[in-house]
Amino acid sequence: MAEELELKAVLYDPPGVRRRLLAAGARLTFQGHLRDERYDRDGELQARGEVLRVRSYHLQHGPIDAILGWKGPVRRSPEGYKQREELELPIAAGSASPGGLLRSLGYAIVHTIDREVEVYQVAGAMVRLEWFPRMDQLIEVEGTPEAIERAVAATGIPRDRFSADSLAEFVRRYEACHDHPATLQLPAS
Which fold has domain 2-177? Predict the structure, then answer.
């Protein structure tokens, strides 16, 4: 089973970070809409700190790729990264959505997260710039500890602005500073 390590930060200067990443040799691997549909059955996964989700990558004029994924409870690595076990199964574009299978097993969507993203590979790490419907823009970096540190340095964002905090914590901080709630889901169309 794979172990995921990551850090996040608020993204204040997307054009500057993009320029610095590209100057460091980053390769854009995806740009478009990313939707996470989280599933649960009577709160059993949430009670264990687990996540079951279908992550869909929507190209502007193309197919939709999806990944069925499970994540174990969050821990902090000894180096201070957000760490959790992760299993992911790619779903080929044009295949049936795994949502039907999950619903047949008694799971229901309990949370949806929509965002526009740019995903880069740089210095052995994945870097994702994220724009939510209404919340701070974020940057997420995943990889080995060494790759994460190289990618963070390539962004030009001071290392102390990155943390192992969850998305929920970034939402809480956003809402503490604004007179309206964060919005992570687009209206149903």
Answer: Hypothetical Protein Pfu-838710-001 (2.40.320)
